[in-house]
Amino acid sequence: MEITDITPIQTTAEEPPLADEPDQAAKFVGITEAPDATESQATPDAEPAQQDEQVVLPDAQDGQTGGAIIMIDSADQQLQTISGTEDNDFLSASVAGYTLLGLAGDDILVSRGGNTMIGGDGSDVLDSSGNDHLYGGDGADIFLLTIGSAPARIMDFGSDDVLAIIGCTGNLIQDGASITQDGTTIVEFATEAMAKAAAVFVGATPQ
Hints:
Number of strands: 15
Structural class: alpha/beta
Helix content: 10-25%
């Protein structure tokens, strides 16, 4: 299992011009210690160090983490539930067999297939490539589906939620609790009422 931390790109502060006096100029070329220059170099390192602590998994058995960015791209049988925080999290799994649990906050959950995504409270984005189970939870959620080899299944779709489908090449039809393209099911819903509400956003024609 690999956990990747996305840290800000640091930039180097503009070097101050050399002063007229030789002793002042020497400070900026390393001959004499310059306290101000030392502070400007040390300050940018503080925030990335904090972020490093946030993405460490303290307990691989229950998947709890203090961080907001977790990306899983290899299978780990001991770690099957990836939990976010009360803040805005980014949870991603490119392999199957995981549950991504956003909890509170406006989270982004990404799956490349074969996973369960649960947004929780807040306005979440659930990005699926198919063959996933999606639960938006409370709040105005966006279900972003890329057409895959197997349909995604949306288990809750409220009046404030939005559906978007990427990769459509044919006519979309709302058929019962499903939305199909040229006879192939793209997404299934827990109820027909949910399918009807979602069909409006993608222009699916009721059958």
